[in-house]
């Protein structure tokens, strides 16, 4: 267990370095997903391995967004060694070689409640609990990852969530029927 904790201590140092740079450079991204939830909203109920950044002024474009290039330029300017694994106009995935940190940059039209971000002291924008919750509900349909279920559980046990509002947002974002999510969650078997 101590080896795993040491791994995350080192990984989080690398995450913090990237997060501080994104805030300092004022890049048009917000942090979302498990890392935003577990490191900033709930203070580490579980470990999180990657950084998921979405464009703030998002919208599908026919070319790679300038912000993706700004991100990689920021890394190069700060002598951070990285490798791009996937790159197109919608998505870039790269790995920071220091501690093998995975970073996803996403350019996708996603309904997002207006100004539904939390601004940290250093200026970094992170996604709201409400939006992360809706995204976790959505991913519960497309993948069977224990971490997503854990995040849903964590949100529900630590917040009074308006489920009806969450489903309304989900319907605006996706074509998923909330009944499918309810059925999937009802049929989870805990062993």
Description of the molecule:
It comes from Campylobacter coli. This is Nucleotidyl transferase AbiEii/AbiGii toxin family protein. Pfam families: AbiEii. InterPro entries: AbiEii (IPR014942). The protein is built from seven helices and seven strands. The protein is α+β, with helices and mostly antiparallel strands. The protein folds into two domains: 1-127, Beta Polymerase, domain 2, CATH 3.30.460.40; 129-191. A five-stranded mixed sheet has the order 1-2-5-4-3. A two-stranded antiparallel ribbon has the order 6-7. A hairpin with a 4-residue loop joins strand 4 (91-96) and strand 5. Helix 2 (33-41) packs antiparallel against helix 4 (129-142), helix 4 (129-142) crosses helix 6 (163-173) and helix 4 packs across helix 7. The protein is globular, with a radius of gyration of 17 Å. 26% of the residues are buried.
Task: Outline the secondary-structure elements.
Blueprint: H1 2-25, E1 29-32, H2 33-41, E2 50-55, H3 66-77, E3 82-87, E4 91-96, E5 101-106, E6 117-119, E7 125-127, H4 129-142, H5 146-158, H6 163-173, H7 178-186
Helix pairs in contact: 2-4, 4-5, 4-6, 4-7
């Amino acid at each position: 267990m101590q080896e795993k904790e040491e791994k995350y201590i080192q990984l989080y140092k690398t995450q913090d370095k990237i997060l501080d740079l994104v805030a300092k450079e004022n890049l048009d991204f917000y942090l979302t997903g498990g890392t935003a939830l577990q490191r900033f909203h709930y203070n580490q109920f579980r470990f999180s391995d990657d950084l998921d950044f979405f464009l703030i002024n998002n919208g599908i474009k026919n070319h790679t967004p300038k912000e993706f290039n700004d991100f990689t330029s920021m890394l190069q300017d700060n002598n951070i060694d990285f490798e791009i694994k996937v790159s197109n106009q919608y998505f870039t995935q790269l790995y920071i070689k220091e501690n093998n940190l995975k970073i996803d940059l996403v350019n996708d039209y996603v309904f997002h409640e207006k100004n539904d971000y939390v601004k940290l002291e250093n200026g970094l924008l992170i996604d709201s609990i409400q939006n992360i919750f809706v995204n976790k509900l959505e991913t519960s349909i497309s993948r069977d990852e224990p971490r997503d279920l854990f995040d849903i559980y964590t949100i529900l046990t630590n917040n009074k969530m308006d489920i009806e509002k969450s489903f309304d947002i989900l319907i605006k974002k996706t074509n998923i029927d909330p009944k499918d999510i309810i059925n999937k969650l009802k049929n989870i078997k805990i062993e």
